[in-house]
Amino acid sequence: MIQAYAKSDIGKVRENNQDYYYISEPLDDVQLYIIADGMGGYNGGEIASSLAVTSAKSYIENNFKQTDKDKESIIQLVASSLEYANMVVYEKSKEDKELEGMGTTLDICLIYNNRMYIGHVGDSRIYRIRKDFIRKLTQDHSYVQKLVKDGTITQEEANHHPQKNMLMKALGCNAFVEPDVMIKGFQKDDIILMTTDGVTNLVSKEDLFNTVKKENLEQIPKKLVEQAIENGGYDNATVIVIKNI
After folding, report:
1. Can you name the residues that pair with 78 across neighbouring β-strands?
2. Which of 124, 144, 175, 233 has a CA that sits 20 to 30 A from residue 225's CA?
3. What's the whole-number average pLDDT of the chain?
4. Which of 107, 215, 242 is nearest to 171 (CA)?
5. CATH second-level architecture of 2-244?
């Protein structure tokens, strides 16, 4: 049995909420959780994130039944759903001059048979909390993360870098995208956090972990979004929490 809750907030500064998410109902055939953080002037970010989430969702739901239920086939389905969503957003940006250059992050978590199948593009994040340990499962596709990886700057410096919002990879900006995909175990009592950078830029990993440990499951997204707003709230903030009960 899986329980999930979510919360999204515009924050203190932005004029509109460019984050978008989807969570499955407990009895849905496909347990699917998706989060996106859009970017682009005018209404571009809002349109990109909602289009990406709805396109990926419909792709998976339309193809899940006839997909073989082995690990390779399911992870391929997730990858293909991101590629499909990329195409939809990209085509839309080409149709409308005002939407030119729009894009979005996209993270998908499909849960099946105590495994999570993850697809990731951008700098929204997925964490897994197991017992007394929190682990970041995704790698940010950001310029600053590349600097950390190359050893040019430390992780501490990255947290305050002026270009920390610059993405190396986003969905919908080019005709093709290569998502990161992975398969992870999802055991009883494991908790997954899916967040946009409006949360992780303002709430430390330790605070994420402490809030998860301290609060009722249902309260976790609300509390983390509140923390992000208290700490500045200069971006939209969205959290999905998922627990294997």
Report:
1. none
2. 144
3. 95
4. 107
5. 4-Layer Sandwich (3.60)
